Amino acid sequence: MNESTKQLSGTPSNNDIGNHNVVININDTPVITQGQNVLITMSEDGAPTITGSPSTSAMANVPYNFTPTAK
């Protein structure tokens, strides 16, 4: 994750083919809360595309939700 842009990115290789469960956590010191579970499936057909427009703000004591769209 790039700290300045808040972008999560990477380049998969053939060794990455298959399903990958990713958990994105939000750290609001001193509390760490579990964020979003994401399943990324890498196939031999090409790289996956995950899109969405998450909210850039959150409130204390209110669950934060973001559902990405995979194409």
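[next item in queue]
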Amino acid sequence: MSNQQKVAIITGASQGIGAGLVRAYRERNYRVVATSRSIKQGSDDGVHAVAGDISNSETAERVVREAIQRFGRIDVNRHRNGTPYRLPKGTPASGCIGSARVGPELSI
């Protein structure tokens, strides 16, 4: 088992449930790629903000590309905004991918 920190992508991350998920994952020592149309980069080095509309496939691809470039992996994908989207084909990922709800590994 690797000592590397796990990485979560969280959509709708600028407010509400999405922002709460970012905080909850950081409290559990995950690195987070947070995305929403209006998100801005904060001071936490463990959170990488990517602004854009996740329903646009180019945004989804950019989120994944930046996650891999910044953190080297993707372990969890939490989609919060109700718009259908999937990780681009061939995305190097492990763990729970594509879930649209909070799974058993995280209770908030």
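[queue empty]
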